[in-house]
């Protein structure tokens, strides 16, 4: 009996030694298999569980972090630009505020004039005694507009659109009030030979938009391009600088007189045309300088004076 018991103890001891020796390697092997499963599960299909978490983790790394949406109001700069306005013509300064939502009860949009740090509007209300200024805002609109009627040169400058956050946010808009000017090239007097072509060129400068029309007058009467006189035409090129050409062929003495260029958005300009019938005027203006023709007698007296001076 004792021998059998001793044999059983020896067998049990040897079995325990074998299990303990092989156990760490078994655990290590199992860990490697699990590790392989984790790294490859990002591209493999598996049942829900730890493998599913590995797949979602792999996708997150591939896609990257999602952009954080704006949580507060901000200015739309593309719709809030500087303005060039025509003298006396209503100007509109627009300020577009995005992502304001239903916060208008707590956050206000204001307009401030920088020239004198004067508060002009708050929300839809106007806070200035100058009735030319007015706040415009339609319900559910993102646009907060400052209207200026009959703008003058002194209204030019910087205007601030302000959001009453903490701290407040500001966007600056520059208003430039311009007055278009009209010029007729070669004026104020033009001398034309009879039978040649009268070419009057009227230029409209500093206009934020081309004039809607340009009328030409001759001696206070509107020129008719379909008149029996014939040979009268006009060509107008519109752009940043608008130019109008009045062409009158086969000039005759009756074409002499005052010609006036009348743009729709600028002051008129006049020029006096003299059609010459072979005569030579006593004084002519060309290039802004007056000069008179020189006769042979003039040269004679000049030579005599020079001789006396040298002697």
Automatic annotation (TrEMBL):
Residues 1-29 form the signal peptide. Keywords: Signal. Pfam families: Ig_3, V-set. Residues 73-164, 180-272 form the Ig-like domain. GO terms for biological process: synapse organization. One of its GO terms (cellular component) is neuron projection membrane. The keyword Signal applies. InterPro entries: Ig-like_dom, Ig-like_dom_sf, Ig-like_fold, Ig_sub, Ig_sub2, Ig_V-set, Zig-8. This is Ig-like domain-containing protein. It comes from Parnassius mnemosyne (clouded apollo).
